[in-house]
Amino acid sequence: MNAHPRPSGKSKAVPVGVVVISVLVMAMCTVGAQGPLAVILPPSILTRLVAHYVTAPRPDRPTPTLRRLTSREVEVLTLIGGGLSNDELATALVISVKTVKTHITHLMAKLAVRDRAQLVIAAFDAGLVRPRH
User: How do the pLDDT tens digits run along the chain, 133 residues long?
Assistant: First the structure.
């Protein structure tokens, strides 16, 4: 397990698998589908890694409370879980990229997550998306 410092100075243990998946998803989102990481780590491998994480027994894994989300936020979270970029989300939802970013900011606050990778994991945890095989 890894420990990440919290603002209060206390540490909270984070499973290594969560850290690895988060880093990989963030790297894929940052570099983009055409970047060097796509050559090193094809989406099919990333999908299998996420699938392994989601199907592994984890009784301590919290389920996000979707009741606090608007129907639009659930729709955005579902598409984020499907791997869409901000531009792709804007096109799919027929909204601006700025509005997409606003939805993402609200989702992060409501679900108490710190990055897009954790939003992807939250979408899987909530059952909004399923691993592709």
Answer: 444 444 454 445 555 555 566 666 655 555 444 555 445 666 667 677 777 766 665 545 545 468 889 999 999 999 999 999 999 999 999 999 999 999 999 999 999 999 999 999 899 888 888 877 6
Q: Residue 53 is part of a domain; what is its CATH number?
A: 1.10.10.10
Parent domain of 64 = 2-125
The amino acid sitting at 127 is G
- pTM of the predicted model as reported, rounded to 2 decimal places: 0.55
Domain count, the chain: 1
